[in-house]
Design a protein that fits this description.
two-stranded antiparallel sheet; single chain; mainly alpha; 159 residues; 9 helices; 2 strands
Length: 159
Amino acid sequence: MDPNVVLAKTPLGAEALNGHESELPRALRHALILVDGRSTLAKLEQRASMIPEFPAALRELVAKGLVAPVGGGTASAASRAGSPPGAGKSLAASLVAAAEAILGDQAGKIVRKLEEAGGSRETLGSAVDSCYKLIRLTIDESRAEEFRKAAKDLLGRVG
């Protein structure tokens, strides 16, 4: 992720923190607590030096729709990123937000593929498979797996 991006809790993220029955693992809960909507990713990483795998925790929070980038970026992703999947935010927009969070500056081609796929679950599913292969070939296998897992979670949850 871009070190200058600012992340904020989505309504779903705030609900997860306020709910007493939250099933978030400890590292994710601590990472979510640190997200304040004002600090850059670089500042958050400084504060979170005690949380193992903090960047991975943030990517997972974005993929789950609990935090999202604010300001900057493209209007399409940044303006829609604050709402959880299914709450006025399209499935395609949720997938784009996950791709941007996981891939950072390298998300351009993936975002384009997802945006061009259309809005149906079937076409987005095919686009996710295509994006997974492209990420594996051009970026990194572990991030490809992370993207595929996040995308499959979103495709299974939003309906």
